[in-house]
Write a structure and sequence with these properties.
This protein is an alpha+beta fold. Helices cover about 20% and strands about 25% of the residues.
Length: about 55
């Protein structure tokens, strides 16, 4: 991420971010929010094997 993107990144209140790693590589990235729209702001989603297929 660029410096500007880092400053735009915001974790919403009570929204756990779960990052799963395998051999130091980000494997999965999730923002846990039950039945509501996320209040987090991620200007660029991290690349993972799961979201590269989308």
């Amino acid at each position: 991420l660029s410096r500007k993107q880092i400053l735009q990144t915001e974790i919403g209140w009570c929204e756990p971010w779960v990052m799963t790693f395998n051999n130091k590589e980000l494997e999965k990235f999730e923002i846990l929010r039950i039945n509501e729209r996320s209040n987090s702001n991620v200007p660029q989603m991290p690349k993972t094997p799961k979201n590269e297929q989308i």
